[in-house]
Amino acid sequence: MTIGSVPLRYKIGVDRDQCMLCGRCVENCPYGVFRMEGERIHVNSRVCVACHRCIAMCPRDAISLEERPVDYRSHPIWTPQVRESIYNQARSGKIILSGMGNAQDYPVIFDRLVLDACQVTNPSIDPLREPMELRTYIGKKPGVLRFGEKDGTTVLETRLAPNLMLETPIMIGHMSYGAISLNAQQSLARAVKHAGTYMGTGEGGLHESLYPYQDRIIVQVASGRFGVDINYLERGAAIEIKIGQGAKPGIGGHLPGEKVCADVSCTRMIPLGSDAISPAPHHDIYSIEDLKQLVRSLKEATEWKKPVFVKIAAVHNSAAIAAGIARSGADAVVVDGFRGGTGAAPRVFRDHVGIPVEAAIASVDAKLRTQGIRNEVSIIASGGIRESADVAKIIALGADAVYIGTAALVAMGCRVCGTCYRGLCPWGIATQRPDLVARLDPDVASVNVGNLIHAWTLELSELMGAAGINSIESLRGNRDRLRGYLLDEGIMKVLDIKPVGA
Amino acid sequence: MVVRIDARGMHYTPLNRAIREAVASGATEIVLDNVMGQRFIADGLRGDVTITIHGVPGGDLGMFMSGPTCIVHGNCEHAPGNTMDAGQIIIHGSAGDAVAHSMRGGKIFVRDNIGYRGGIHMKQYLEKRPILVIGGSARAFLGEYMAGGLILVLGKEDDRPRIDRGIGSGIHGGMIVIRGGIDEENLGVGAMMSELSPGEMSGIEPFVREFSGNFGLDPDTFLNDRYFRVSPASARPFASKYTWEV
Amino acid sequence: MCGIIGVIDRARKRMDGTGIRSALAEMDERGSGEGAGYAVYGAFPELKDYYAIHVFFDDLHETKPRVEEELSKWGVIEHDEAVPTYEQPSLRKIHIPWRFFFRPDPHLMPRSITPEDDVVMHVVMKVNTTIPGALIFASGKNVAVFKASGWPEEVADFYRIQDYKGYLWMGHNRYPTNTPGWWGGAHPFNLLNWSVVHNGEITSYGTNRRYIESYGYQCTMYTDTEVVAYLFDLLVRRHGLPLETAVRALAPPFWDEIDRMPDQEREIFRAIRLAYGSALMNGPFAIVVANDQSMVGFTDRIKLRPLVYGEKGDRLYISSEEAAIRTMEPDVGEITMPKAGEPIIGRYVA
User: Could you tell me which chains touch chain A, where touching means 3 or more CB pairs under 8 A?
Assistant: First the structure.
């Protein structure tokens, strides 16, 4: 007992007056917090992860949860997290695995940006009675158009590259089958189809049951190449090469064998129960010119009919990297900020590597414009998009569209407990255990996700209308309509915005 | 008593002052000659007087007007009848954008065409019901946000009026009646269209006759035709838009 | 609010500035007495092959030599003179207007297909961003621009525009919001042969500016209108788009309208919106733009600002108000309102 037990992270209480011993908490908790003995619910708070499933399912509001009921002596440097990491690693000698996005207390740039509205000099536009255009095309755009004449009429001579047409600039990012359940993927697929937008497969292949939605699905090619064959590539509306991920820039992925059930094994095309390991780099890409080869080989395989995206984690040099990607023939670059979520990532990466998406997008957009190649690629922002205001702000900074991930999971019930890596998600999202997966009803969850996209789209229209803008193109890169509130000069220079009042 | 005013080179403030003085001294008819762009003619004017305008009055003719009749021999610029309360404006020509904006009572007859957002936010209350009759066509967003009253479009030059998108967009009261109807794609948000029944037609007929009488046209060329009404699908078109924070 | 007017004589019959002065004065209500301006095409018939570089100097002693040096680096100054001005009681002469008649050396821009224009554009951007106290506010051939802070009739009399003749005139009466008192902020904005007068506010300015600046233009006037001149220069001169197409790129049809078009047209408009999305101008505006071949007027896509046009013989008039046109030409024919985003174009026939 050198170290002994650490204080409880969460303490569950049961209001005995309210409890009617229905046992729903026992049934619902996959972590084993509750057990019924005779006429009493017994609680083991130590295994609680604060997923809130019990609280949500209790018909009598009898369950309470207290965070850190017994805490350490306070200290500004030696925080409880720091101390517990040390205990953990002292015991185990291992890398600490974590879930969801960056949990470090960095300031959020989005929350220091404010949007503009019209007063007097121009009228705001009511999006519900006048046209408001959110339609967004993702892909390469010609820099110049050439017209000719044929039989006395004007004809377009420039040939357009394939683009995806989005009815709203909100897409759902790549969360693989394996990381999340099939029911979760089906819910997302139905929602994007209904909303006129797209979702990503992640690197887990495309399950047969998603074929009906394939024209709304972007298939991912990652370093592990799981589930990738020509059938997969042809089914996707677009193809995304995943170089990196905001939650863990510079490292690969690891789906533990226990999550590789029969169905996952078949979709990923790997043996049942074996670990699915994605290498850190693509071993056919060791330099930017190799990326061009992969982009071209994917285009060649699919007869140049599909846009190819390249996703990178937002890192210090994102702007230059994006400029290289724009020259590779890729049609869009996805920049995943350091707040992006994940099923599992080493905590040291999740919390300390990469940069915020706001700064990354601003510098990528600026770099592409300086080099005159902004039209060569669309910019998709992902990682830490939490609400419609974030969407408006990131588009004003220069993005064409966003990927949301965590927000879509939250719309299906996720409580952001951050324990996805355990594979016991009681909401049926980040799990493959059939009884847990069955808890997520795609009929309901797809509506919830669709509602979220719809509501954000409405709010985005309102924000644009208030700014006197009736087409999303006029918001894109319109940094004049942003101001920084208590942001330092250095950041404002990167974002190329003025402070409030200026 | 008829008073004649030569408005050439006159600013609108002295012009309106002269009009008010004429009304105060008992004029029942005022004739304005050489009007050229003066705004706010008869702005807020009360009384039982007919003002005949020769030329092109500037914007906001008859704004807040409550009682008089303005007869314009020429075109109007933007928003004649803006927030007008009672009285009449008869335009022997066309008018600009936002004709009858927020009009709450009285009648406006335009012989030819009007611009964008005609009748925007017209509204009615108790006995006050604003009427806007357009002989020709209107541009987009006709009757946008309309809350009451009647807009009647006759399309005299064509089989039916040429109106672009957004007709009755956000309409939540009153109705827009259009000879020959419109294409479905031009119907605004929250608006619906149906053919006028013979009973409803009899409610429209007096306005067609009055319009024709004003401009010396034959009402029968308009009356023997099908009419369609654009009216609110709901009195609260945007009610389903919000949810409570908690 | 601002009032705008433009007139073109398609037979190139020249008119003096008397008419436009009275037309603009008719719209005094639209301005605030803090800015007005005129542009006239065909103003310098004897020097028509030279670029008429108009400069506002804050002083002649220190700044003018620097501009001359810059011009001489890139070509030859054939002639230069102070723009004649005549004192007005309430117009303060803040700057000294000057004009240079300049012939650029095309060999200095070997990679350009329009080297003379590109030399001049380069000089304009260079002077305006690096020489404090000097602002080039016009740079076209055979085009004169007159502007200052004041009421339209004062500005007209300050320059005696009735002494100039041309076959295309534009005028603007300003109600400033962003930059009062600043002569450079008055319209018309000019670059090369492009001149723009504008009523309204461009809510997409930030987007348009970022777009245009990535093509080497630099916005130096602290106001949204100058991007319009640059956008036309980029789309028409450098990209070679027909004028109608350029207007449709700046104020395109809505997607639902494009979706209903016949195939060929739909393809064209989709391409325009994809390629030129960042050039799309949003917000309320009515604009008249001229170059050496034509004049075009158009409004924003939902027609938030007024614009009407009328014709008499070879002349096409476009203005914010019918009364302004009738003041200039009482016998003008029918006055028509263009549809939102639809270009009204007058081209020379002679």
Answer: B, C
Tell me, yes or no, if B116 comes closer than 8 A to chain A by beta carbon. no
Domains and CATH numbers, chain A: 10-94 (3.30.70.20), 167-499 (3.20.20.70)
Query: What is the total count of domains within chain C?
Result: 1
Residues B161, B74, single domain; the answer is: no
C-alpha A501/C-alpha B12 separation (Å) is 38
- C254 contacts chain B (CB < 8 A): yes
Across the interface, do B97 and C303 touch by the CB < 8 Å criterion? yes
Distance between CA atoms of residues A397 and A492, nearest Å = 11
Is residue C2 flagged as an active site residue? yes
Residue B183's domain comprises 94-238
Which candidate in C1, C2, C196, C295 is catalytic?
C2
Please give chain A's pLDDT, 502 residues, in tens. Answer: 689 999 999 999 999 999 999 999 999 999 999 999 999 999 999 999 999 999 999 999 999 999 999 999 999 999 999 999 999 999 999 999 998 889 999 999 999 999 999 998 888 888 888 899 999 999 999 999 999 988 888 899 999 999 999 999 999 999 999 999 999 999 999 999 999 999 999 998 999 999 999 999 999 999 989 999 999 999 999 999 999 999 999 998 878 787 788 888 889 888 888 888 888 888 888 888 899 999 999 999 999 999 999 999 999 999 999 999 999 999 999 999 999 999 888 999 999 999 999 999 999 999 999 999 999 999 999 999 999 999 999 999 999 999 999 999 999 999 999 999 899 999 999 999 999 999 999 999 999 999 999 999 999 999 999 999 999 999 999 999 999 999 999 999 999 999 999 9
| Chains near B (3 or more Cβ pairs under 8 Å) | A, C
pTM given for the model: 0.92
Chain A residue at shortest CA distance from B145: A129
Quote the radius of gyration of chain C (alpha carbons, Å).
Answer: 19
Q: Which two tokens stand for residue C32?
A: 């605030």
The bridge status of strand A34-37 relative to strand A147-150 is: unpaired
- Cβ-defined contact of C275 to A146 (cutoff 8 Å): no
Q: Answer yes or no: do B189 and A126 touch at CB < 8 A.
A: no
Interchain contact, B144 vs A130, CB within 8 Å: yes
Name the DSSP letter for residue B34. E
C225 touches chain A (CB under 8 A): no
Give exposure, B94-111, as e/b (b: 16+ Cβ within 10 Å).
Answer: bbbbbbbbbbbbbbbbbb
